[in-house]
Amino acid sequence: SPSLSQQVQRLRPSSTIAVTSRALEMQRMGLDVLSMAAGEPDFDTPAHVVAAAKQAIDAGKTRYTQVQGVPELREAIAAKLKRENGLDYTPEQVTVGNGGKQSLFNAFFALLDPGDEVLIPAPYWVSYPEMVRFAGGVPVAVTTRPEDGYRLDVDVLKAAITPRTKLIVLNSPGNPTGAVFPETTLRAVAQLAQQHGLTIVTDEMYEHIIYDHEHVSIARFAPEHTLTVNGASKAYAMTGWRIGYAAGPLPLIKAMNAIQGQSTSNASSVSQWAATAAITDSREFIDMARGQFQQRRDRIVAGLNALGLPTPTPDGAFYVLADTTRIHHDELEATRIILEEARVAVVPGTDFLALGRVRLSYATSLEQIDAVLERLGRL
Ligand code: PLP
Fold this sequence. Notes:
This protein is 42% helix and 14% strand.
């Protein structure tokens, strides 16, 4: 068989996939497995968004678009960034990709030379270090602690800066921690970036899934040093439509467009028109989703803590990190026991650097959360 590149051999298979495929196999065998592993909202895409997509198809908007996205969508994104985040970007400073994932991928390839270091607060979303390595960079984990609610300590971040540091990745609200970084932290990180000539890549995918806090965009404090990445997946329940975007300094956006132009070209034209409708007006849906997520968060956090599985209360996103050392000190083994004996699928913290913990997604109904807590209680 063909010999694979060293590059791709360095890519780490995710331990999440092992659990998910075992859970699916058990479900196929007819076993009643409850999954708390999902990384997506359980709601349907809002009706006005679906209608806009149908209209686009009927109007024949089914051809290639500009690589960076149709002007109407980029105008809607620029207006959204102004309205909701207080950021000033022209539509030329916006680029649309096939999910936030592609926008992040383009950004790392546009910014990193071999050996460049990227600071990433941990526990982190597993794709950041993998993408960074794929682009030739060196991911450097910056520890955050459960007792601090996984909020970033800027002194710890500062201590990790070396002459090779190029980027800081921020993800607030974060996956898998749910941590929301306060404005004082964001201002301090912005100042560090300015002092050391670093670029901040901020992934604000979960900005609308936030409880008792206001989302703050770090680009307000260091616009010249920041790339803001966001997307339609989590905010408008559009994971399958594959629309993400980034806004930032024009030379960086142009470089990202050049990369995308030689790889995937534009994101799906129909999805772009759907996203235009979503981004222009989805207040009602966002408020509904936030309300439901908050109820679920309260239920699952209280339930897990009552079971003796210590779980910090996250301020955003739809995940909790539960300490499962009471079940087994090794989170991979705990994950296996929870799956095989309680028939609940969770994600081990291993790849996130959340050792001794598992991630549960509460993007499921309250009934399912109750059933999961009941099963864990019996276990
Ligand atoms: N960023 C974070 C932190 C995520 O959790 C995800 C999805 O799980 C993404 C980005 C990617 O989202 P998408 O590519 O669907 O826009």
